[in-house]
């Protein structure tokens, strides 16, 4: 669902929540959590603010949160602290009796909005004419339920940054070519790591309905949707050069949503979970420049005072939509549930959900 249609549906935060003190909000949230017990489940993505993360029953990257949602059959109310596509995924992987809520409907993902279903269907029909039945679609979970359904319909699967390599390998065992939506960078970085030459990757431009490539069509192995994450595009090769100059011993680690050039200039790249695990396992005294979302980098700095950690971009890169979930919105969401008048429920159309689920399940079956 696009940001515009989300906003049309949204109920906005009543003004008086903005005047509450932090301690008041925290104690009211704690009281509701205690009262609802296991009927309530609050998953929190690692990019969420600390003020929200402190109340999460589980934290994780998008793959872990999808797995947790599929495993949790108990909670009646799931208050998802993340962005819209993650809450949609949770809705599709839980039972009908479980209801998923997003505390602020404005918490979308700009990358997910870069591929809409009409553009995708048009692209598919042109690509079928160009390449015949040789393409399998793969979509990053950062996509709308409609794109996941499209992917499921044509035999494809979802991927996250944690399992992208596994899923791209699987996709090549099914068909000769992959259409990778909507993040060109994750698609390019993953395929490159698996040995696909850059010149064998074309870019599909949904605004001009054209394939951007200098390669002859028979050599094209991967078709990358021209989408990106504006947070991770905020890291540049100049940032890596500045770090190398100022801190020659520092290792640079980035998320694969960064451009190919930035990943190539870094020492290491991997999903949110991979970055967290790498820093957790790094020796005391080691030095790191991290290229990913600001809240997570700040948290790692705080938790690893024995290591030198900086953001790869000294101006930091916040995900503005993730940051829309804050204490007032969380409290408002929980109080509306407690009062039996919940709002901002995320409910995927059942016809879309059925095919979308098949693409999610193909992913979950492979880890
Ligand atoms: P992860 O799959 O690493 O959780 O990333 C989700 C995301 O939105 C990154 O920008
Ligand atoms: Fe979307 Fe980028 Fe924010 Fe992740 S960091 S939710 S990809 S806008």
TrEMBL record:
Cofactor(s) required, per the database record: [4Fe-4S] cluster
Positions contributing to [4Fe-4S] cluster binding: 109, 229, 319
Xref: Pfam families: NadA (PF02445)
Family (UniProt): Belongs to the quinolinate synthase family. Type 3 subfamily.
InterPro entries with a match to the protein in the record: NadA (IPR003473), NadA_sf (IPR036094), Quinolinate_synth_A_type3 (IPR023515)
UniProt cross-references to HAMAP family, sorted A to Z: NadA_type3
Function: Catalyzes the condensation of iminoaspartate with dihydroxyacetone phosphate to form quinolinate.
Annotated localization: Cytoplasm
EC number: 2.5.1.72
Cofactor, how bound (note): Binds 1 [4Fe-4S] cluster per subunit.
Major place of residence: cytoplasm
Sorted UniProt keywords: 4Fe-4S, Cytoplasm, Iron, Iron-sulfur, Metal-binding, Pyridine nucleotide biosynthesis, Transferase
Reaction catalysed by this enzyme: iminosuccinate + dihydroxyacetone phosphate = quinolinate + phosphate + 2 H2O + H(+)
Annotated protein name in UniProt: Quinolinate synthase
Residues given in the record as iminosuccinate binding sites: 45, 62, 140-142, 161, 255-257, 272
Pathway given in the UniProt record: Cofactor biosynthesis; NAD(+) biosynthesis; quinolinate from iminoaspartate: step 1/1
Lineage, opening ranks: Bacteria, Bacillati, Bacillota, Bacilli, Bacillales
Molecular-function GO terms, alphabetical: transferase activity
Lineage top rank: taxon: Bacteria
């Amino acid at each position: 669902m696009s940001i515009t249609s989300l906003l049309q549906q949204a109920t906005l935060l009543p003004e008086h929540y903005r005047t509450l003190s932090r301690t008041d909000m925290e104690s009211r949230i704690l009281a509701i959590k205690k009262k609802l017990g296991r009927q309530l489940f609050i998953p929190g993505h690692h990019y969420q603010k600390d003020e929200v993360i402190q109340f999460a029953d589980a934290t994780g990257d998008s793959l872990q949160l999808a797995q947790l949602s599929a495993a949790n059959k108990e909670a009646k109310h799931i208050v998802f602290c993340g962005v819209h596509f993650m809450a949609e995924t949770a809705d599709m992987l839980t039972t009908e009796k479980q209801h998923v809520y997003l505390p602020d409907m404005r918490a979308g993902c700009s990358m997910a909005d870069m591929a809409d279903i009409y553009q995708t269907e048009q692209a598919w029909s042109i690509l079928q004419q160009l390449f015949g039945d040789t393409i399998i679609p793969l979509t990053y979970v950062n996509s709308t339920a409609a794109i996941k359904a499209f992917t499921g319909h044509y035999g494809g699967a979802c991927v996250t940054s944690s399992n992208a390599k596994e899923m791209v390998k699987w996709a090549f065992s099914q068909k000769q070519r992959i259409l990778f939506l909507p993040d060109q960078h994750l698609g390019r970085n993953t395929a490159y790591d698996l040995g696909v030459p850059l010149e064998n990757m074309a870019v599909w431009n949904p605004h001009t309905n054209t394939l951007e490539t200098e390669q002859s069509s028979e050599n094209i192995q991967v078709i990358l949707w021209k989408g990106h994450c504006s947070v991770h595009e905020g890291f540049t090769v100049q940032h890596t050069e500045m770090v190398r100059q100022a801190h020659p011993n520092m290792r640079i680690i980035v998320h694969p949503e960064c451009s190919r050039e930035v990943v190539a200039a870094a020492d290491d790249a991997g999903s949110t979970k991979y970055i967290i695990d790498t820093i957790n396992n790094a020796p005391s005294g080691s030095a790191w420049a991290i290229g990913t979302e600001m809240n997570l980098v700040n948290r790692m700095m705080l938790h690893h005072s024995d290591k030198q950690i900086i953001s790869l971009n000294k101006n930091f890169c916040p995900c503005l939509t993730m940051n829309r979930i804050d204490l007032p919105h969380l409290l408002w969401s929980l109080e509306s549930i407690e009062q039996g008048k919940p709002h901002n429920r995320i409910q995927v159309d059942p016809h879309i959900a059925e095919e979308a689920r098949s693409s999610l399940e193909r992913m979950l079956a492979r880890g």
